[in-house]
Amino acid sequence: IALCVSISLICSVRILITLCQPCSSIMATVAARATDSIHWVVVGLGNPWPIASRTSRHNFGLLQLERLANKLNATWKFSFSMLAYTANVEAGESRLKLVWPMVPYNATGFCIRKLLQNQRSSLEEWKESGGILVLHDDLDKPFFSSSFKNGGSCGGNNGLLSVSEAFGSNAFHRLRIGIGRPGDGKSRDPKLIVPYVLGKISEADEHKLIEMVLEPNIEAIIAYCAKSEKSNYKVNT
Fold first, then answer.
1. Which long-range contacts (CB under 8 A, 24 or more apart) does 117-123 make?
2. Rounded Cα gap, residues 172 and 24, in angstroms
3. Active site residue 58
4. Which string of b and e fits 39-77 if b means at least 16 CB within 10 Å?
5. At what angle do helices 60-71 and 215-226 cross, to 10 degrees?
């Protein structure tokens, strides 16, 4: 009897393995197609409010993502595994995945790492299809200016460092939105920088930011994602 039971169990396991093999193949194909269908991932850096004021300087990346999403009629869905809202949108001939992290600024890499794991993809695969574009505030650019950058140093930005660690590389694209430096515009004192980047801008500056930077950047982002010579493309520097 014991022998019969053992044989029966072995046969059952083999049947399950046989049945599961096509499922695994299908899942891998679906994951691959999910990666292939998206040309660009666009991520906004910021602190989800009410952790920080919506219009704090450190949230300029999220403000830019919000304007882009509204323009492209994005429908957000929450991913519990990524701890982020995501939306797939079409922008001209490009298909974008927008990512709105719901984690602190300096932990954004967690969302990116989960995205790569969920879609079974790597930075190299995304670079082949298009790329990763991170929208973020930048102390080293003047207020009311912005420019694109491909790769290079993270410049001490801990949010970018988090993303870089998730990729294992700095080879991703950025849209740098200038916030300037506190004091005389050259300060590198953390005691001045921390409250400055977390500080809320005035209502007048918010309107000016929207008019001079965030709105023009929408078309610039769409054009950037469609352009082949991406590293040389710049906007209102």
1. 118/79, 118/81, 118/82, 119/31, 119/34, 119/35, 120/28, 120/31, 120/32, 120/35, 121/31, 121/35, 123/167, 123/168, 123/169, 123/171, 123/172
2. 31
3. yes
4. bbbbbbbbbbeeebeebbbbbbbbbbbbbbbeebebeee
5. 80
- Three-state secondary-structure class, residue 115: helix
Active-site option among 39, 58, 136, 173: 58
Q: Is 99 exposed, middle or buried (0-12, 13-18, 19+ CB in 10 A)?
A: buried
Would you state the pLDDT for residue 2? Answer: 42
- Angle value at C-alpha 63, between 48 and 159, nearest 5 degrees: 55
Residues 6 or more apart whose Cβ sits within 8 Å of residue 53: 59, 198, 199, 200
Angle, in degrees to the nearest 10, between helices 108-118 and 158-167: 20
Question: Quick one: pLDDT at residue 193?
Answer: 94
Note the pLDDT of residue 136.
98
The predicted structure's pLDDT at residue 84: 96
Q: What's the average pLDDT block by block, 10 residues per block, for the chain (237 residues)?
A: 42 38 34 56 90 89 97 96 95 90 95 84 67 94 95 91 89 95 89 94 96 97 76 43
